Amino acid sequence: MRGKTFPSAHLVRSIPTLVLVTLLTVAGCTAAGSSAGATSSKAPAQPSAAATTAGPTFDATGFKLTTPAFTNGGDIPEEYTCYGDGASYELDWVGAPPQTVAFALIMVDYSAMYTHWVFYNMAGSPSGTLPKGAGTDSKPAYTVVVRFVKPCPPAGHRSNYVTTLYALSAKLTTKPATQTEVEDAIADITIASTTLSGNYAPAD
Protein backbone atom coordinates (compact mmCIF):
# COMPACT_ATOMS: atom_id res chain seq x y z
CA MET A 1 0.00 0.00 0.00
CA ARG A 2 1.22 3.43 -0.81
CA GLY A 3 1.31 6.34 1.67
CA LYS A 4 2.10 4.23 4.78
CA THR A 5 5.47 3.46 6.14
CA PHE A 6 6.06 0.49 8.41
CA PRO A 7 9.13 -0.11 10.54
CA SER A 8 11.31 -2.81 9.28
CA ALA A 9 11.03 -6.26 10.84
CA HIS A 10 14.52 -5.85 12.35
CA LEU A 11 13.53 -2.67 14.20
CA VAL A 12 10.28 -4.19 15.48
CA ARG A 13 12.14 -7.17 16.89
CA SER A 14 14.69 -4.87 18.62
CA ILE A 15 12.16 -2.79 20.60
CA PRO A 16 11.18 -5.52 23.14
CA THR A 17 14.84 -6.36 23.59
CA LEU A 18 15.73 -2.73 24.37
CA VAL A 19 12.85 -2.45 26.85
CA LEU A 20 13.95 -5.64 28.62
CA VAL A 21 17.56 -4.53 28.85
CA THR A 22 16.49 -1.14 30.22
CA LEU A 23 14.28 -2.72 32.87
CA LEU A 24 17.00 -5.15 33.96
CA THR A 25 19.53 -2.32 34.17
CA VAL A 26 17.24 -0.19 36.34
CA ALA A 27 16.41 -3.15 38.59
CA GLY A 28 20.07 -4.00 38.96
CA CYS A 29 21.01 -0.47 39.92
CA THR A 30 18.19 -0.34 42.45
CA ALA A 31 19.19 -3.67 43.98
CA ALA A 32 22.83 -2.65 44.12
CA GLY A 33 21.92 0.63 45.77
CA SER A 34 19.76 -1.16 48.34
CA SER A 35 22.50 -3.68 49.08
CA ALA A 36 25.13 -1.00 49.52
CA GLY A 37 22.85 0.95 51.80
CA ALA A 38 22.15 -2.12 53.96
CA THR A 39 25.82 -2.94 54.25
CA SER A 40 26.65 0.61 55.26
CA SER A 41 23.90 0.77 57.88
CA LYS A 42 25.00 -2.50 59.50
CA ALA A 43 28.74 -1.84 59.53
CA PRO A 44 30.12 -2.37 63.08
CA ALA A 45 31.16 0.76 64.91
CA GLN A 46 34.88 1.11 65.39
CA PRO A 47 36.10 1.28 69.03
CA SER A 48 36.95 4.74 70.24
CA ALA A 49 40.47 5.74 71.16
CA ALA A 50 39.44 5.79 74.82
CA ALA A 51 38.28 2.18 74.66
CA THR A 52 41.63 0.96 73.37
CA THR A 53 43.88 3.12 75.52
CA ALA A 54 45.78 1.13 78.15
CA GLY A 55 45.47 2.12 81.78
CA PRO A 56 48.30 3.65 83.79
CA THR A 57 51.38 1.57 84.48
CA PHE A 58 53.92 1.96 87.23
CA ASP A 59 57.63 1.33 87.16
CA ALA A 60 58.28 -0.77 90.26
CA THR A 61 61.55 -2.35 89.15
CA GLY A 62 63.41 -0.42 91.85
CA PHE A 63 60.97 -1.20 94.66
CA LYS A 64 63.03 -3.08 97.25
CA LEU A 65 62.54 -4.17 100.85
CA THR A 66 65.69 -4.79 102.88
CA THR A 67 66.98 -5.01 106.44
CA PRO A 68 70.40 -4.34 107.93
CA ALA A 69 69.91 -7.47 110.06
CA PHE A 70 70.51 -9.98 107.23
CA THR A 71 70.66 -10.31 103.45
CA ASN A 72 67.62 -11.32 101.46
CA GLY A 73 67.37 -15.11 101.57
CA GLY A 74 69.89 -15.30 104.41
CA ASP A 75 69.67 -16.35 108.03
CA ILE A 76 67.87 -14.28 110.63
CA PRO A 77 70.08 -13.58 113.67
CA GLU A 78 68.96 -15.27 116.89
CA GLU A 79 68.33 -11.96 118.65
CA TYR A 80 65.23 -11.42 116.48
CA THR A 81 63.67 -14.74 117.53
CA CYS A 82 62.15 -16.18 120.68
CA TYR A 83 65.60 -17.51 121.52
CA GLY A 84 66.81 -13.91 121.82
CA ASP A 85 65.10 -10.56 122.44
CA GLY A 86 62.49 -11.30 119.80
CA ALA A 87 62.13 -7.73 118.52
CA SER A 88 61.05 -7.20 114.92
CA TYR A 89 64.03 -6.30 112.76
CA GLU A 90 64.37 -2.97 110.99
CA LEU A 91 62.75 -2.80 107.56
CA ASP A 92 63.81 -0.33 104.87
CA TRP A 93 62.26 0.26 101.47
CA VAL A 94 63.13 2.30 98.39
CA GLY A 95 61.65 2.77 94.94
CA ALA A 96 57.95 2.68 95.75
CA PRO A 97 55.88 4.16 92.88
CA PRO A 98 55.18 7.89 93.37
CA GLN A 99 51.45 7.11 93.21
CA THR A 100 51.71 5.12 96.45
CA VAL A 101 49.18 6.40 98.98
CA ALA A 102 49.53 3.67 101.60
CA PHE A 103 51.29 0.41 102.44
CA ALA A 104 50.17 -2.96 103.73
CA LEU A 105 52.53 -5.61 105.09
CA ILE A 106 52.17 -9.35 105.56
CA MET A 107 54.79 -11.64 107.12
CA VAL A 108 54.29 -15.40 106.90
CA ASP A 109 56.28 -18.49 107.88
CA TYR A 110 55.63 -20.53 104.77
CA SER A 111 57.31 -23.58 106.29
CA ALA A 112 54.56 -23.82 108.91
CA MET A 113 51.96 -21.68 107.09
CA TYR A 114 51.79 -19.40 110.10
CA THR A 115 51.09 -15.66 109.96
CA HIS A 116 53.52 -13.51 111.96
CA TRP A 117 52.56 -9.94 111.12
CA VAL A 118 49.80 -8.13 109.22
CA PHE A 119 48.98 -4.45 109.02
CA TYR A 120 47.63 -1.89 106.54
CA ASN A 121 47.09 1.86 106.00
CA MET A 122 50.66 2.87 106.75
CA ALA A 123 51.30 6.18 104.95
CA GLY A 124 52.93 5.78 101.55
CA SER A 125 56.32 7.23 100.64
CA PRO A 126 58.92 6.50 97.93
CA SER A 127 61.34 5.33 100.62
CA GLY A 128 61.23 4.86 104.37
CA THR A 129 62.00 2.78 107.43
CA LEU A 130 60.22 0.75 110.07
CA PRO A 131 62.64 0.80 112.99
CA LYS A 132 63.66 -2.22 115.02
CA GLY A 133 60.88 -3.19 117.42
CA ALA A 134 58.15 -1.47 115.35
CA GLY A 135 56.13 -4.67 115.43
CA THR A 136 55.55 -4.33 119.17
CA ASP A 137 54.93 -0.57 119.15
CA SER A 138 51.91 0.15 121.37
CA LYS A 139 50.84 3.05 119.11
CA PRO A 140 51.79 2.04 115.57
CA ALA A 141 51.21 4.40 112.64
CA TYR A 142 49.11 1.78 110.85
CA THR A 143 46.13 -0.50 111.47
CA VAL A 144 47.20 -3.80 113.04
CA VAL A 145 45.52 -7.08 112.11
CA VAL A 146 48.18 -9.42 113.51
CA ARG A 147 50.74 -7.97 115.91
CA PHE A 148 54.31 -9.10 115.26
CA VAL A 149 54.93 -12.68 116.42
CA LYS A 150 58.62 -13.45 116.94
CA PRO A 151 60.03 -16.39 114.94
CA CYS A 152 60.17 -19.47 117.17
CA PRO A 153 60.62 -22.73 115.26
CA PRO A 154 61.22 -25.89 117.31
CA ALA A 155 64.67 -27.40 117.62
CA GLY A 156 65.74 -29.22 114.50
CA HIS A 157 63.33 -27.29 112.29
CA ARG A 158 64.33 -24.59 109.78
CA SER A 159 61.65 -22.04 108.91
CA ASN A 160 61.38 -19.57 106.06
CA TYR A 161 59.86 -16.18 106.84
CA VAL A 162 58.68 -13.99 103.95
CA THR A 163 57.72 -10.36 104.50
CA THR A 164 55.79 -8.70 101.68
CA LEU A 165 55.29 -4.95 101.46
CA TYR A 166 52.41 -3.83 99.22
CA ALA A 167 52.26 -0.34 97.69
CA LEU A 168 48.62 0.75 97.43
CA SER A 169 46.94 3.42 95.31
CA ALA A 170 44.46 4.19 98.12
CA LYS A 171 43.88 3.60 101.80
CA LEU A 172 41.42 0.95 102.89
CA THR A 173 38.10 2.28 104.09
CA THR A 174 36.94 -1.14 105.25
CA LYS A 175 38.25 -2.90 108.35
CA PRO A 176 39.54 -6.35 107.40
CA ALA A 177 40.14 -8.55 110.43
CA THR A 178 42.22 -11.40 109.00
CA GLN A 179 45.11 -11.92 106.60
CA THR A 180 42.75 -13.26 103.93
CA GLU A 181 40.43 -10.27 104.29
CA VAL A 182 43.38 -7.90 103.94
CA GLU A 183 44.59 -9.71 100.83
CA ASP A 184 41.11 -9.50 99.31
CA ALA A 185 40.75 -5.82 100.21
CA ILE A 186 44.07 -4.75 98.66
CA ALA A 187 43.84 -6.92 95.53
CA ASP A 188 42.45 -4.16 93.29
CA ILE A 189 44.54 -1.29 94.69
CA THR A 190 47.99 -2.91 94.81
CA ILE A 191 50.28 -1.17 92.31
CA ALA A 192 53.56 -2.82 93.37
CA SER A 193 54.94 -5.27 95.91
CA THR A 194 58.32 -6.42 97.14
CA THR A 195 59.45 -9.24 99.43
CA LEU A 196 62.17 -9.96 101.94
CA SER A 197 62.95 -13.57 102.83
CA GLY A 198 64.83 -14.85 105.87
CA ASN A 199 65.45 -18.27 107.45
CA TYR A 200 65.98 -19.44 110.97
CA ALA A 201 66.84 -22.77 112.59
CA PRO A 202 67.62 -22.99 116.32
CA ALA A 203 71.12 -24.07 117.24
CA ASP A 204 71.40 -27.70 118.35
Could you walk me through the main structural features you see in this protein, from its secondary elements to its overall organization?
This protein has 204 residues and is of the alpha+beta class. The chain has a domain at 64-200: Alpha-Beta Complex (Phosphatidylethanolamine-binding Protein), CATH 3.90.280. Helices cover 22% and strands 27% of the residues. The protein has three helices and nine strands. It has a six-stranded mixed β-sheet, covered by helices on one side. A hairpin with a 4-residue loop joins β4 (102-109) and β5 (114-123). The longest helix has 33 residues, at 9-41. It starts with 8 loop residues before the first helix and ends with a strand.
Could you give the topology of this structure?
Blueprint: H1 9-41, H2 49-52, E1 64-66, E2 74-75, E3 91-94, E4 102-109, E5 114-123, E6 128-130, E7 143-146, E8 159-168, H3 179-186, E9 190-200
Parallel strand pairs: 2-9
Antiparallel strand pairs: 1-3, 3-6, 4-5, 4-8, 5-7, 8-9
